[in-house]
Amino acid sequence: MGLEPDPDAADVAYLEQELRAGTIAAAGIGCEQELVVAARSGGRLIGGCCGITWGGTCQLDTLWVRPASRGAGLGRLLLERAEQEVRDRGCVQVV
Asked: In three state form, how does the secondary structure of 11-65 look?
């Protein structure tokens, strides 16, 4: 047992997967659902946000806008669209 200063991405993903599966099973609330809102221009991804919803909560992990597209309100629009979807899914909080 020891600290891993440069952990393998697959190990981290496995730990997160097992934690989520155990939490979902223990709570008995149902499965988590991915949330992805993407903005594209000419088929090219220029921004997006992603996270999960589960148990009345949305956990947003990422919000990103391509540097050339920043300052025009795209980030706000992405969050507004995500918030609408979260409400539609019955969530009462976002973290």
From this structure: HHHHHHHHHHHHHHHHHCCCCCEEEEEEEEECCEEEEEEEEEEECCEEEEEEEEE
Q: Looking at the DSSP assignment, which residues form a beta bridge with residue 44?
A: 41
**Token pair recorded at residue 20:** 């989520």
What is the rounded distance in angstroms from the CA atom of residue 91 to the CA atom of residue 87? 5
Point out the least confidently predicted range of 9-18, 58-67, 81-90.
9-18
Report the distance separating Cα 29 and Cα 88, nearest Å. 17
Which pair of structure tokens corresponds to residue 86? 């979260």
Record the pTM: 0.74
Closest to 75 in 3D by CA, of 45, 44, 39: 39
